[in-house]
């Protein structure tokens, strides 16, 4: 199987008693402190007590113990609330809308900066018994005082705005956060305008970001509502320009842009008079990535437009469609898919079944957040194995490989996959047939390295230029090799191991495209072939494969890490199970090893193992 990445954002603490120190009767009227046995922190399950002990002589005060109680602050809060309920020890009265609210000055000062500055900042309110509070309602201030004493506040649609005003004035950040959470819980298509206005009014950036996220995730339904056209133009333009906009095609973005300027009825009845309307500024259409819209839609739109900036954009998009072969070198922000999600694609290979006609599930996509592989519809990938795989400008290239029909046969055919349209296209074939080779991308070019054509083993290297759709030979390998693997670090290609004749290799070579030269590097620690390689954070990991070390073909589970800067090898955590001829992909600094063949088990496998380079450990899926 082949794989690569392409783009398609409470721990429970259990505590128990332990003796940090102990007291023992020595004699009548005598108490002696026994020597503690090491420093500890202990906590009762109810949080009532804790103790810290230390070895005698370990501090300035030998045998010293510190006791803490997590229940103390709860008791203190309960005591203050009790004083309030009984009307005891009040020392300040807040007068709001002519109505008094009694309180304890020290608690208010401890609760928020507003009252701390008022009572401890040398202002005249420091000595006043009654303090007039302006700009907030009595109801809202009472709710804030209730919260200060109880750590609880009740919100509803009738009071939330007044509470937000009061909490903003007294700088009670936790209550502001609760108001934001409450407003977000009520956010829907009908309330979005009011919530956004409140976020702007009170400069609540977190709430505003959540409203923006709601627009991105609900654009298809929201754009058909009357409230959509009342939302601020800059917010809709921001959403329609975003890579995070949740749409299935750019046609939906085009429709959403029209819905901002015209009613859904006009758009769906095709009664949009663009010629007249373009005298006005239809700004939303500037956010549409016309290169991603279906050609038939563009042609129809183009025919309805007079000369204007919009028609120029549509014309440019049509030219882009006409140059399908060269699209990888014509990329711009307006040709990128609406996604920030990088996925792993798996395709090709062979099944354990002997049937050559079973082509189901040949093309699948995976992201860790999904927890499953999904089959992409309609896009039937070429039926190949042992092919080279590369990603260039978010296009996937399949280079050469085995045809898998009527026995094994090396091919020079090459294909390119476009994830934006879920489509395949043929590109210029290799000059030689290559199978069991490796493919790497450097400097906007694709390199096909070595392999075999089943009549001989190859030392040739071909380079593909997507701007000309041509292959050309570059500097050959020092010796022929097949069943090897390659990876790129700092603009240089590294290949390792493989086979020559019947011999399994440990060789490592480095190719510098700028110098067009191959150099010999330190040999790896293990002979292997039909393995995979991946580069993460400047290091190269050599994974899986097989060798003949014990007199028969067996899995190689040892994983070797090569540091190009030091020209040295180390062994890291081994594979849990064998992967010969696996697919390899790197996603979020984790290496995914997909399927392949286990020679120890004697069959092809479907399992996936994921290597965490930071933790040096494997996860199985």
Automatic annotation (TrEMBL):
Presence of the UniProt keyword Ubl conjugation in the record: no
Keyword field contains Repeat: yes
BTB domain: residues covered: 90-157
Chain segments annotated as transmembrane: none
Any GO CC annotation of this UniProt entry: polar microtubule
Alphabetized SUPFAM superfamilies for the sequence: Kelch motif (SSF117281), POZ domain (SSF54695)
Key words, A-Z: Kelch repeat, Repeat
Gene3D superfamilies from the UniProt entry: 1.25.40.420, Kelch-type beta propeller, Potassium Channel Kv1.1, Chain A
GO BP of this protein: positive regulation of TORC1 signaling; proteasome-mediated ubiquitin-dependent protein catabolic process; protein monoubiquitination
Protein name: Kelch like family member 22
Record organism: Oryzias latipes (Japanese rice fish)
């Amino acid at each position: 199987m082949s794989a690569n990445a392409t783009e398609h954002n409470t721990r429970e603490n259990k505590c128990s008693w332990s003796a940090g120190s102990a007291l023992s009767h020595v004699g009548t009227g005598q108490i002696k402190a026994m020597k503690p046995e090491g420093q500890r922190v202990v906590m009762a399950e109810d949080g009532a007590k804790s103790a810290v002990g230390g070895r005698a002589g370990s501090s300035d005060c030998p045998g010293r113990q510190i006791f803490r109680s997590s229940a103390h602050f709860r008791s203190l809060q309960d005591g203050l609330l009790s004083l309030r309920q009984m009307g005891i020890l009040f020392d300040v009265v807040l007068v709001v809308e002519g109505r008094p609210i009694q309180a304890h000055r020290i608690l208010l000062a401890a609760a928020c900066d507003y009252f701390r500055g008022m009572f401890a900042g040398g202002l005249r309110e420091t000595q006043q018994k009654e303090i007039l509070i302006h700009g907030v309602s009595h109801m809202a201030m009472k709710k804030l005082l209730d919260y200060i004493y109880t750590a609880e506040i009740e919100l509803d649609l009738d009071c939330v705005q007044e509470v937000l005003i009061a909490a903003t004035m007294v700088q009670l950040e936790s209550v502001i956060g609760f108001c934001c959470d409450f407003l977000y819980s009520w956010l829907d298509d009908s309330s979005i305008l009011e919530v956004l206005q409140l976020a702007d009014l009170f400069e609540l950036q977190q709430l505003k970001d959540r409203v923006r996220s709601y627009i991105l995730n609900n654009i298809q339904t929201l754009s058909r509502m009357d409230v959509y056209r009342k939302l601020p133009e800059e917010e809709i333009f921001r959403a329609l320009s975003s890579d995070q906009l949740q749409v299935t095609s750019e046609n939906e973005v085009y429709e959403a842009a029209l819905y901002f300027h015209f009613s859904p009825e006009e758009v769906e009845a095709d009664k949009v008079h663009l010629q007249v309307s373009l005298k006005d500024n239809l700004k939303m259409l500037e956010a549409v990535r016309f290169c991603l819209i279906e050609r038939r839609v563009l042609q129809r739109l183009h025919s309805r437009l007079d000369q204007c900036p919009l028609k120029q954009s549509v014309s440019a998009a049509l030219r882009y469609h006409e140059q399908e072969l060269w699209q990888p070198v014509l990329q711009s922000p307006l040709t990128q898919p609406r996604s920030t999600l990088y996925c792993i694609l798996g395709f090709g290979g062979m099944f354990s079944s002997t049937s050559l006609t079973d082509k189901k599930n040949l093309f699948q996509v995976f992201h860790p957040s999904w927890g499953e592989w999904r089959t992409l519809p309609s896009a039937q990938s070429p039926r190949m194995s042992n092919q080279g795989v590369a990603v260039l400008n978010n296009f996937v290239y399949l280079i050469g490989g085995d045809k898998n029909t009527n026995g094994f046969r090396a091919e020079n055919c090459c294909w390119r996959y476009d994830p934006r349209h879920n489509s395949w296209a043929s590109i210029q074939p290799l000059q030689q047939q290559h199978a069991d080779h490796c493919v790497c991308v450097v400097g906007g070019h694709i390199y096909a390295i070595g392999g075999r054509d089943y009549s001989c083993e190859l030392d040739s290297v071909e380079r593909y230029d997507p701007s000309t759709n041509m292959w050309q030979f570059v500097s050959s390998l020092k010796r022929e090799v097949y069943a090897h693997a390659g990876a790129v670090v700092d603009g240089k290609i590294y290949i390792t191991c493989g086979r020559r004749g019947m011999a399994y290799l440990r060789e490592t070579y480095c190719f510098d495209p700028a110098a067009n030269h191959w150099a010999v590097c330190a040999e790896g620690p293990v002979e292997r072939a039909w393995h995979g390689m991946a580069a993460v954070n400047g290091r190269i990991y050599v994974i899986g494969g097989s060798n003949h070390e014990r007199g028969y073909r067996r899995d190689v589970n040892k994983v070797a890490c090569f540091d190009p800067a030091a020209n040295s090898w180390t062994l890291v955590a081994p594979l849990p199970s064998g992967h010969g001829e696996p697919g390899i992909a790197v996603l979020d600094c984790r290496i995914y090893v997909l399927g392949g063949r286990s020679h120890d088990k004697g069959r092809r496998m479907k399992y996936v193992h994921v290597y965490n380079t930071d933790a040096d450990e494997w996860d199985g899926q």
